[in-house]
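Lab notes, practical 5.
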Amino acid sequence: MENGKKIAVYCSASYTIDPEYNRVARDFVRAAVADGFTIVSGGTVKGTMGEIAAEIEACGGRHIGVLPNFMTELVYPSMTEVHWTATMAERKTLLREGTCAVVALPGGIGTLDEVIETYTLKKLGKYDGKVLALNHKGFYEPLKSLLDHYVREEMLEPEIRDSFLFADTVEELIAFLKEA
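Output from the prediction step:
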């Protein structure tokens, strides 16, 4: 049963990552769909994006894909909705539009770009949702350390630092989402 809330999921497009990251991504999708969340993602067949798309489909969840026009050949074939954009910048904006949270699963530089842009918008008061990362196997420890360094150097306010939430487990991540 849908709860009316949408979450944007940022994740890897790589086929060569540790399969454990894809397993935990599927676990997360099952839990999020069971709690009624609509998932908005990059919508491609590649890497973890493809894995979560297949899992959303298998669970009967609602999935909105957002892709730039130059990725037409990569679109996952059976999403609830697909939205096309002219640029990657437009894609990032549309991914988070109307969401109660963004979730960064373990991913590469594109995932980092998406979550940091959203976090910056949150700091500026332009994004009201939660900013979350699944810190499975300590994947986001370097980012946590960097943010803590910014606080120590007075480049980031402690309350802003505290608004980026890191979950070590799917259960903890879902608990954060239920508060969104």
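Observations recorded by the TA: The helical segments are 19-34, 47-59, 88-96, 109-123, 141-152, 158-161, 170-178. The first helix runs from residue 19 to 34.
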